[in-house]
Amino acid sequence: MPTLDVLVFWIAEFGILTFLIWACIYISTLSFSALKHAPFVPTRVSTKPVIARARPRKDQTFIDLGSGDGRVVITAAKEFGLNAIGYEINPVLIFLSKLRARIAKTDVQFIRADLYDAGLCQRPALYRIHHQLPPIIYIFLLPRYMDHLGKKIIRSCPPGTVVISYGFVIPLLSDKLYTILKGKPFPTYYYKL
Ligand SMILES: C[S@@+](CC[C@H](N)C(=O)[O-])C[C@H]1O[C@@H](n2cnc3c(N)ncnc32)[C@H](O)[C@@H]1O
Predict the structure, then answer these.
(1) How far is the CA of 40 from the centre of ligand 1 (A)?
(2) Atom of ligand 1 nearest to the CA of 38
(3) Which residue ranges traverse the bilayer (predicted)?
(4) Which atom, in ligand 1's list, is nearest to the CA of 66?
(5) CB-based contacts of 5: which residues, under 8 Å, 6+ apart?
């Protein structure tokens, strides 16, 4: 039977080790993002009301373009029963997201891809969907992505697709804007094709 001071030592050692592992993961995430010019900033508001405003239907496909640590897609799957998919360029974030999804006991697909190459709505992985409802696409990306993504969404996604953009407008979809959710630090814009 270990004595009390040995136990305290073990607990302290475990705490320090856990902290060091997380620090390594965090630093490698930031370094990768800096090298790829793809900053990781998680959605700061509660994601449930943001998704709810799009009135999702069970089993509808929900795609986060640049899914970060997976928090938005995990909420979509867990709270709304959606077929959730995250595209992410950073392998460390994909690893973290899969871990989070496993802990949350949710079935979410994470696809490591560069959004500039990804087929979005045409990608075969999406055809795991149970019925042919148009998808909901979630975006929290820098304004420099918006024109490229706007074109890609118009080209590849079916009518009825809902696009949620947290923080920034998508100029090419301006005539499809149907509601705005006010919020701090950012509003959220909703478009329907
Ligand atoms: C602002 S964060 C948003 C994260 C998550 N969607 C959220 O709301 O919490 C943007 C994410 O997009 C990813 N990203 C940036 N450029 C990308 C690209 N070209 N292809 C795939 N992912 C990208 C970054 O690695 C980062 O995790």
Answers:
(1) 6
(2) 15
(3) 6-27
(4) 12
(5) none
Q: Low-confidence residues of the chain, pLDDT below 50?
A: 127, 129-130
Beta strands, E only, 66-148: 83-88, 109-112, 136-139
* Structural contact between residues 190 and 179, judged by C-beta atoms closer than 8 angstroms: yes
What's the CATH code, domain 47-192?
3.40.50.150
Alpha helices in 104-145, H assignment, sequence order: none
* CA 88 to ligand 1 center in whole angstroms: 6
Looking at residue 131, its pLDDT comes to 54
Measure the CA–CA gap between 14 and 10, rounded to whole angstroms: 6
Pairing verdict, β 61-65 and 83-88 = parallel
pLDDT tens track for 84-131: 999 999 998 999 999 999 999 999 999 998 887 777 777 655 545 445
Backbone dihedral region of 159: left (phi > 0), alpha (psi from -120 to 50 degrees) or beta?
Answer: beta
Q: What is the pLDDT of residue 125?
A: 52
Parse the chain into domains and list their residue ranges.
1-37, 47-192
Residue whose token pair is 């979630």? 138
Structure tokens at 34: 């800096």
